[in-house]
Structure formats: structure tokens, C-alpha cells
Specification:
Elements lengths: L3 E4 L6 E3 L3 H16 L5 H6 L2 H6 L11 H11 L9 H7 L8 E3 L3 H10 L3 E6 L6 H11 L7 E4 H4 L6 H11 L6 E5 L2 H10 L3 E5 L23 E3 L5 H8 L2
Parallel strand pairs: 1-4, 1-6, 4-5, 6-7, 7-8
Antiparallel strand pairs: 2-3
Length: about 250
């Protein structure tokens, strides 16, 4: 019996939008408001910290230690971190998602319908700066507060999808077993492979263009082929769920 539906966020429930220069300006303004003017803000906001994060711990490539990576980045540039609250810096470097994203077509409609089938809904997202609290605060701004029960971010979990830990944490927070949940996402490695390894059903939202093979992923594995179902739009999910919950 199905009791829960898990959804990826970026490119699944949301679509990127907005002028990059305006978004960076909003990031910079938040940092200045909290920490005053610093000459390294632009470099920080343009840095590829995600790549550093993925290479942070070769023994555990899916481990996420955002604050450790942030501290290391600052120290390499000679920034005195003694007077910096790194967690506050992390929060201040983020801007509300309504500035850089919009709901995907039919996202609210589909989540509303899924709830009518008696399922609880969790958003399970790989993030860089954003923790559970920040994402939860974004839900009303995105129009999702009434259809999402639980949010689970990789930052707050300490592991990125496809690691089992983030799926197991989501299952614990929702209060269901793996066999009672399914995952919907656009990334075959993170969302399909990860969900299947954790014992969930997986729905692959196939979007163009094809995804490159992820950094650190096992070579020669066709992750998308492990999906229980493949859809091309969120609205295609409704007959799938109807069949699974009949």
C-alpha cells in the first residue's frame, strides 16, 4: 500500500528563471546587510563550490559538509573566519527561490491530486546553501505550502542523493516504510538509482537535454533503466498513481 510520494525540487517541481545579474545582486545585498561590505562576495557567489563539495571526501563522495567546504574556501583566500558565523553566512548567501525559479507546469495541480489519493508528500532535494528550515520558508512563496508535508535537504541531512541516508531520513520524517513510497525526479542517478537502492519505487521525469554521467557515479550503469515508470511531464504521473493506489 502506498502512503507517500517524494519529489525532487529543481527541474522537477521548479523551473529556473530570472536574470542572473539581478539574482547575484540580490545575493550580494543580503550579504552586505548581514556582514557589511567585503571584497570577496562576488568571488564567493561565482565560485563552483558544488564541485568542491563533490570532491570534499573521496572516501565518501556523497557526504555533504557545506560549512567545512565554505571555511576552506575562505581560508584559502586569506579571509579571517574567526569573526564569521559560517552558518549565518550560508543562510545569507541564499535568496528566496521565487527570485530564480517558478513552478513547473501542473506542479501544484499534480501534488494536490496526489494528496487526494491519501498520500503524504515530501520534497527531497540536493541543495548547496539551503537547509530544511530555509526551504520550508520558501514553500509559501512558491505556492507549495498547502501541498507539501515534509522537506528534506542534503545540507541538513549531511548526505546528497543518491545516498541512502537522505531517503531514509525522509522516510523517517514522513513515517512510512520504503515499500510504501515512491520518488519522482529528473536525475537518473540521484532520483532513480538512489530511490531504488533505498527500496522505493522510482519515477523518472525525462526532460531534455540528456543528463551527463554524474561525477562520482559508477561507470557503465544506465541509471534511468532502473525506473519503474518513465514520464515526460508531471501530469503523466496521475494515471501511474491511480494504478498504484487502485
Amino acid at each position: 500500500m502506498l502512503r507517500a510520494a517524494f519529489f525532487d525540487l529543481g527541474d522537477t517541481l521548479l523551473r529556473a528563471r530570472g536574470d542572473r545579474a539581478a539574482i547575484l545582486a540580490a545575493h550580494r545585498d543580503r550579504l552586505i546587510e548581514r556582514f557589511g561590505k567585503r571584497d570577496w562576495y562576488d568571488e564567493l557567489l561565482g565560485a563552483d563550490l558544488l564541485s568542491e563539495l563533490l570532491l570534499d571526501d573521496p572516501a565518501e563522495p556523497l557526504r555533504q559538509r557545506t560549512l567545512t567546504v565554505l571555511r576552506r574556501w575562505l581560508e584559502r583566500r586569506g579571509v579571517d573566519v574567526a569573526d564569521l558565523d559560517l552558518d549565518e553566512l550560508r543562510r545569507s548567501a541564499e535568496v528566496p527561490r521565487k527570485l530564480n525559479a517558478t513552478l513547473a507546469p501542473s506542479a501544484h495541480e499534480v501534488l494536490t491530486w496526489v494528496r487526494t489519493r491519501g498520500l503524504r508528500i515530501a520534497v527531497v532535494s540536493n541543495t548547496l546553501w539551503t537547509g530544511d528550515d530555509e526551504l520550508r520558508a520558501d514553500l509559501p512563496l512558491l505556492g507549495l505550502a498547502d501541498v507539501v508535508d515534509v522537506v528534506v535537504t542534503s545540507h541538513s541531512t549531511g548526505y546528497r542523493k543518491p545516498h541512502r541516508a537522505i531517503y531514509e531520513r525522509a522516510l523517517d520524517l514522513v513515517g512510512v516504510r520504503a515499500a510504501e513510497a515512491f520518488m519522482v525526479g529528473d536525475e537518473p542517478y540521484a532520483d532513480v538509482y538512489g530511490a531504488k537502492r533505498a527500496g522505493l519505487r522510482a519515477v523518472w521525469l525525462r526532460l531534455p537535454p540528456p543528463r551527463p554521467h554524474p561525477v562520482g557515479a559508477p561507470p557503465g550503469v544506465a541509471f534511468a533503466e532502473e525506473a519503474d515508470v518513465t514520464i515526460s511531464a508531471l501530469s503523466d504521473l496521475m494515471p501511474v498513481v491511480e494504478h498504484w493506489t487502485a
